[in-house]
Inverse folding.
């Protein structure tokens, strides 16, 4: 009931805001929020922004969220995760509001991360089953690419414009367009990062395969997130950042081309799928591809109206899918018509059969991602099999102490030496996280590798450029506190006789829900969840990486992507999955 009341209050507030916005002549509104951190080099502020695009999206989101909450009261009645579901839905809605009302990229990133985290928990809602947990990891792995792409775009904007650009100023061509046309590198680098983040978030080719996997959660969460609201965030994000790319013809061609390829592949795939959720997922992807084409032509309002229709339709289709499935099964039993005989000879028949097989296999996009995106990291990680506890104790930790000594005595080191130290420690940090990426023997060892990886990254930032030590302290305060909490939880599990290997999903949340919650908080803290000290310190220190340090930037990017994946995997392997009873009574067979 509290969820319903909250949504109704939000809806009334939106109606009042809409009336005031109409009376003010439809002028965009920018609200300067609190300053989280400020220094001579950079600042981090929370700003809010409202215009017509955001208001329409907000109204649709509020209506659909209220509808799903009312429907879920009956649909999920007596489910074991009843309260957990509504908590995640409200948290998602909060993140969505932040994205839609964000006044700058930093504020938008906060809501962006909240949506990603809630997606992970909702896809894995049935956490005692293997496939939901596995697919939640797949989705969050791709989400991590989008997160880092957006973070790099923020870094590029800080470097190029020298300040945090709010979206109201972004609509002024005299501020952005002159800069973007003057520097070819930024003219392409910033829009490409925006496009990559939008492609992943909206499941565009070649990242389309994650959306059907996300349907493993409850049908109601599929309806609100992956059929209507969350999957359209990429479209809204491109509209919000249009001033960065709309004058770049090549980027517009790229947006339209990606949308066109997605429309073709998703339409073919949707037409041959045997499950309703997968059909709806690919149908939604194809419509979003059309929205990308509309954006490429500059038809922003058409894309927004297209979103409204697609979101309402997909939510309706998913909510009635159980009833439709029952009807279709009944209809097939009593009115079965055998398919016509398919010819195999001739070029046209062979082309049709080839497209049919490719569509059935979803154009092998899932296999493509696994083989060419994640498998190379696993192969490289296996090269460092020798990084064991002894190596960590007698080499990795002493090397960190040596690096810390160099950092404290940076002024007495030759400038040529200091120039190479950041790359060296960045490479060592990458080796540690690659080893953690493939390590499965012990959660304690993997968590230690994650901690050392973050400590080495602090050395990378500190040795790269002289700046206030306060920024490193902010970063390390979040890392050390979160890592300590994680070690404490792992220690308690070991004391209670739990297996700490990561070879399978252990499902310890069944016996230890409180420890699972505490460990989840520790994971968010060490992964750099927004507004944590880790994220604030990371954002501040990234601004000190120069635009010509491409090799160092690549190292940091890979570290951030893999670090987040390892953290999510440790949590999933320890606490999610099928629960294995080791202390309950069981019946013995009589003699």
């Amino acid at each position: 009931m509290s969820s319903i009341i909250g949504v109704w209050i939000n809806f009334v507030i939106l109606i009042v805001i809409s009336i005031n916005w109409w009376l003010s002549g439809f002028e965009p509104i920018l609200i300067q929020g609190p300053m989280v951190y400020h220094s001579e080099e950079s600042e981090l502020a929370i700003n809010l922004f409202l215009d017509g695009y955001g208001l329409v999206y907000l109204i649709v989101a509020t209506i659909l969220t209220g509808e799903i909450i009312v429907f879920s009261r009956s649909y999920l009645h007596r489910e074991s995760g009843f309260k957990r579901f509504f908590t995640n839905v409200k948290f998602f809605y909060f993140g969505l509001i932040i994205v839609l009302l964000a006044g700058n990229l930093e504020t938008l990133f906060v809501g962006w991360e909240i949506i990603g985290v809630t997606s992970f928990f909702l896809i894995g809602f049935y956490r005692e089953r293997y496939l939901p947990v596995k697919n939640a990891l797949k989705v969050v792995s791709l989400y991590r690419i989008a997160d880092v792409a957006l973070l790099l775009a923020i870094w590029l904007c800080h470097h190029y414009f020298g300040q945090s650009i709010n979206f109201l100023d972004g609509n002024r061509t005299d501020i952005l367009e002159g800069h973007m046309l003057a520097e070819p590198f930024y003219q392409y680098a910033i829009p490409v990062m925006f496009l990559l983040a939008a492609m992943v978030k909206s499941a565009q080719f070649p990242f389309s395969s994650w959306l059907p996997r996300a349907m493993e959660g409850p049908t109601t969460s599929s309806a609100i997130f992956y059929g209507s609201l969350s999957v359209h965030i990429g479209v809204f994000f491109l509209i919000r950042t249009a001033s960065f790319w709309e004058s770049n013809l090549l980027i517009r061609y790229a947006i339209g081309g990606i949308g066109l390829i997605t429309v073709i592949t998703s339409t073919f795939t949707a037409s041959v799928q045997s499950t309703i959720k997968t059909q709806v997922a690919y149908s939604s992807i194809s419509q979003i591809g059309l929205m990308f084409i509309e954006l490429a032509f500059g038809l922003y309002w058409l894309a927004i109206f297209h979103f409204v229709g697609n979101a309402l339709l997909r939510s309706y289709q998913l909510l009635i899918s159980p009833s439709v499935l029952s009807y279709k099964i009944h209809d097939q039993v009593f009115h079965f018509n055998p398919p016509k005989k398919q010819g195999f000879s001739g070029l046209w028949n062979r082309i049709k059969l080839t497209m049919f097989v490719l569509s059935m296999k979803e154009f092998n996009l899932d296999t493509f991602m696994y083989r060419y995106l994640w498998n190379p990291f696993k192969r490289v990680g296996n090269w460092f099999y020798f990084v064991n506890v002894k190596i960590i104790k007698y080499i990795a930790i002493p090397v960190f102490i040596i690096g810390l000594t160099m950092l404290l005595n940076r002024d007495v080191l030759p400038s040529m030496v200091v120039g190479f130290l950041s790359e060296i420690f960045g490479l060592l940090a990458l080796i540690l996280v690659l080893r953690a990426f493939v390590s499965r023997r012990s959660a304690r060892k993997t968590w230690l590798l994650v901690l050392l990886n973050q400590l080495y990254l602090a050395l990378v930032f500190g040795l790269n450029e002289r700046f206030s030590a306060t920024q490193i302290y902010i970063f390390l305060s979040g890392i050390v506190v979160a890592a300590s909490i994680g070690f404490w939880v792992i220690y308690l599990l070991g004391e209670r006789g739990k297996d700490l290997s990561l070879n399978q999903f252990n499902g310890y949340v069944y016996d230890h829900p409180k420890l699972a919650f505490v460990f989840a908080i520790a994971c968010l803290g060490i992964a750099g969840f927004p507004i944590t000290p880790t994220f604030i310190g990371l954002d501040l220190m990234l601004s000190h990486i120069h635009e010509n340090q491409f090799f160092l930037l690549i190292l940091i990017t890979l570290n951030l992507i893999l670090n987040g994946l390892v953290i999510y995997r440790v949590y999933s392997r320890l606490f999610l999955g099928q629960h294995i009873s080791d202390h309950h009574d069981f019946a013995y067979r009589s003699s």
